[in-house]
Amino acid sequence: MHLSKRGEYGLRAMIMLAKAPVDEKRLTIGEIAREENIPAKFLEQILLSLKNAGLLQSKMGAGGGYYLARPPEQITLGEIKRTLDGPIAPIRCVSQMAYQSCGCPDEENCGLRLVMQDVRDAIADILDNTSLADVQARITN
Amino acid sequence: MHLSKRGEYGLRAMIMLAKAPVDEKRLTIGEIAREENIPAKFLEQILLSLKNAGLLQSKMGAGGGYYLARPPEQITLGEIKRTLDGPIAPIRCVSQMAYQSCGCPDEENCGLRLVMQDVRDAIADILDNTSLADVQARITN
DNA sequence: TTAAATTCTAGTAAAACAATAGGGTTAGTA
DNA sequence: TACTAACCCTATTGTTTTACTAGAATTTAA
Q1: Which domain, by its residues, includes A16?
Q2: Does residue A8 contact residue A15 with C-beta atoms inside 8 Å?
Q3: Residue A14 needs a FRET pair 20 to 30 A away by CA distance; which of A5, A59, B18, B122 works?
Q4: Which residue's alpha carbon is at the shortest distance from the C1' of D28?
């Protein structure tokens, strides 16, 4: 579960969007890039992916920008991470999204696989149960 | 916490060495490579790294081979994984082994960091508390 | 009409990954 | 003493992924 720059930047941007006051909830790429120290053209691609995944919405043209597609309580870090970095599982044979056999003779009794399944579940448990609102709550309290 | 081929092969080899009967505990690169379908020359490098990290011992020359440096109860998957794939943390700012600032203005109150810290701890908790003996126990029962 | 903004695709340099290659050293055995 | 089986060690190579960068097209507000 390495977090790439792509994933990191996307999560930071989403967290920033979640914390923006309701009346100015629409933020531009430039604003986010400046605040979070992210290369603007790179962030552009990332936000576009998040939009295509249905996590963001946007308004084009002057005065436009990005805003969350759903309230912060309903967007999890797991969704964001998967969108940007792909499956969460450490190895394909325990992936829910992108299962692929590892070629063991007997997968059911593969010790490595059983442990990696636990790891996957532990990570998914955190990421899929932490919403953008939960992230806010942890720092504002 | 992605598991690279290097990490996967190393873990499989260590698990195989842990399960070998005591009287024939010394296995050659060739034997392990054949049994686990691992390119032999790649495995060679991996076992050498594990040896240099103090997790394996070896005997050179004809009739030689590799064997665990400690009993299976005393070697954790965490040690093996770290040796072969480096730090377990998903992002450097929560790494115990290789900490590095991510450049936030206030790391203590960085929401992303707090969550990633939880993820790191969850992974490390599993890997550092699962020994090679524990892996055996899970499949032989 | 102009300027501010997103959209979309392509390209690229550097690093990481997954091997492969090959010569060197050690040790058992015929 | 050869010979052979095994580990030791370092370098190289091809592929893929990562982290950007570039630029042209489109939309919208003023």
Answers
A1: 5-140
A2: no
A3: B122
A4: A61
